[in-house]
């Protein structure tokens, strides 16, 4: 068996390793998640789990939000002027990407602080 203490709780024994950072973790700290891409279940520590959740949300902010914004009200700007429309079309993904990066960075800071 595994005789390594948990990375987060030195008093309890680890039941396995985090699939992402490789740290030994106990039952309280580990969560089994299934990767969206590979569909393979893997064990993640709470930091890596929070990070992967933050990443998923950041990806949604960076891709889905600009898509919805462009698909819903994008035409309004083209009605105003094609130039305004193109500016909108080019700036929305950039602003969303920056927003996503800021969100992700803020989350990392938040996770590391806990
Ligand atoms: Zn981890
Ligand atoms: Zn633990």
Give structural notes:
By secondary structure, the protein is mainly alpha-helical. It folds into two domains: 1-44, no CATH class; 52-114. Helices cover 59% and strands 11% of the residues. The protein is built from two helices and four strands, in the order ββββαα. A two-stranded antiparallel sheet has the order 1-2. A hairpin with a 6-residue loop joins strand 3 and strand 4. It is elongated, with a radius of gyration of 20 Å. The two termini are 30 Å apart. One zinc ion (ZN) binds at residues 18, 20-21, 23, 44-45, 47-48.
The biggest beta sheet is recorded as: 2 strands, antiparallel
Bound molecules: zinc ion
| Alpha-carbon Rg, integer | 20 Å
Strand order of the largest sheet: 1-2
Number of strands: 4
Sheet/helix structural class: mainly alpha
The proportion of residues forming helix, as a percent range, comes to 55-70%
Mean pLDDT equals: 91
Q: Outline, from the CA principal axes?
A: elongated
Number of DSSP helical runs? 2
- Which spans have pLDDT < 50 for at least 5 consecutive residues? none
Distance between termini? 30 Å
Question: How many structural domains in the coordinates?
Answer: 2
H/E element string?
EEEEHH
Strand fraction equals 5-15%
